[in-house]
Every structure is written in C-alpha cells, then in structure tokens.
Design a protein that fits this description.
113 residues, single chain, 3 helices, mainly alpha
Length: 113
C-alpha cells in the first residue's frame, strides 16, 4: 500500500507563494497593457510603426493576463485537492480509531466463547 504524507502547513505556504506569483504576474500584465497604450499613443505620428506594434500586440497582448489566470487556476485546483486529501485523511483516521475498539472488543468476545 502506498503511503502519502500531507503536510498542510508546507502545502499552504507553497500555494500562497503561487498565488503571490500570480498576483505579481497580474500586476505586470496590467503594467504591460498601460505601457502598450502609451506606446501606441507615442507612435501615433508614425503610422507604419504604429500598425506593426498594433498587429504584434493584438496577437500577444493577452498572454500575460492569461498566464496569471493559469497560475491562479492551478493553485486553486491544487488547494482544493489538498483540502480534500486532508479531509479524507481525517475521516479515515476517525473511522479507524472508532473501529479499533469495536474490533478489539469483538476479538475478546470471540476468545471468551
């Protein structure tokens, strides 16, 4: 049988780190969007450069936001999985503790009979 040790405190710390990274990525994505708008405004007098940048940004502009969303989503999925494992572990532990005295008592009764 495989054994899995879940360390909730360490897992929570790792997930918080992932969420922080996702938030920093979102902030960077917002700054990139603001910067792209400023660059588009600055290139208004150079139509060829402005068009080239607009074409580039239209294809890649959402990438930072999507990456940040992916980090948040994945951290959330792992968090839910860890919470489920911890809950299941606690439930199995409770069931085992409740069953052991009954099983021991049943074995003793069988020995008497």
């Amino acid at each position: 049988m495989a054994t899995v040790d879940i360390a909730p405190a360490e897992t929570t710390t790792a997930l918080n780190g992932a969420v922080d990274a996702g938030q920093h990525m979102e902030e960077a994505a917002t700054e990139a969007q603001v910067g792209s708008t400023a660059l588009e405004d600055a290139l208004a007098g150079a139509p060829t450069a402005s068009q080239a940048f607009s074409e580039f940004w239209s294809r890649f502009g959402e990438l930072p936001t999507r990456a940040a969303s992916t980090v948040h989503h994945q951290a959330s999925c792992v968090g839910r999985a860890v919470a489920t494992f911890v809950t299941m572990d606690e439930a199995m532990s409770s069931s085992a503790q409740g069953a052991l005295p009954s099983a021991a008592a049943s074995n003793l009764q069988d020995l008497k009979d």
